[in-house]
């Protein structure tokens, strides 16, 4: 975990992990951060990266922790969108999350999300209820735009993971084995903060995203190992 990285540093790190060369003119401080990231296994190039950009205040985002050693967390300096500059080509497949408006989420998508997070979708009451590890639950009122946006961000994460696994399986065992980059931009926490400030629902939202990320990473590891 680094305190912060520039967008160029993030792009360089992702490039190296995917098996590509970093920019030739990378400044010395940036190279040091890159070495820190690669130090545990300096010659290991997984050729698959899941890049998750989470918008929100430092208090919310800094609370994210993980028991998984393969997760690396950093703050991106001055970045509205963590576009890496890497695009689809013969040796690389890039899968990006759908950042379209959350107002058009479908009932089946909400049902799938509720099942994934072991919660429930109550269509008649326009409620999505997600259990928390604390024993409480987060209740999203789907007649509120901000709650729909948060749910939509979770749906986008789930769909990105599913697409990534499907693409990986399609290429497994084939002659061509491209590197794979999954990019997800999560705006749901910031949406809750903008609407509710520091209310309890924001903390509950962070806890839900933590759970969702753990599930997503477990699914990816299961598919890629």
Tags for this model:
single chain, 225 residues, alpha/beta, three-stranded antiparallel sheet, 7 helices, 43% helix, globular
Brief rundown of the structure:
By secondary structure, the protein is α/β, with parallel strands linked by helices. The chain has helices at 7-17, 28-38, 58-61, 107-116, 145-171, 188-196, 200-224; strands at residues 4-5, 48-54, 75-76, 92-96, 120-122, 127-131, 137-141, 179-186.
Encode the helix/strand succession as letters.
EHHEHEEHEEEHEHH
Average of pLDDT: 82
Q: Which sequence of strands runs across the widest sheet?
A: 2-8-4
Terminal-residue CA separation: 23 Å
Shape summary:
globular
Low-confidence blocks of residues:
78-83
Largest sheet: 3 strands, parallel
What fraction, in percent, of the residue positions are helical? 40-55%
Q: Whole-number radius of gyration? A: 18 Å
Proportion in β-strands:
15-25%
Q: Tally the helices: what do you get?
A: 7
Q: What can you tell me about this protein's structure?
A:
With 225 residues, the chain is of the alpha/beta class. The protein has one domain (47-224). The protein contains seven helices and eight strands, in the order E-H-H-E-H-E-E-H-E-E-E-H-E-H-H. The protein has helices at residues 7-17, 28-38, 58-61, 107-116, 145-171, 188-196, 200-224, and strands at residues 4-5, 48-54, 75-76, 92-96, 120-122, 127-131, 137-141, 179-186. The chain has a three-stranded parallel beta sheet. Strands 5-6-7 form a three-stranded antiparallel beta sheet. A two-stranded parallel sheet has the order 1-3. A hairpin with a 4-residue loop joins strand 5 and strand 6 (127-131). Helix 4 crosses helix 5, helix 5 runs antiparallel to helix 6 and helix 5 (145-171) packs parallel to helix 7. It is globular, with a radius of gyration of 18 Å. It starts with a strand and ends with a helix. The model is unreliable at 78-83 (pLDDT under 50).
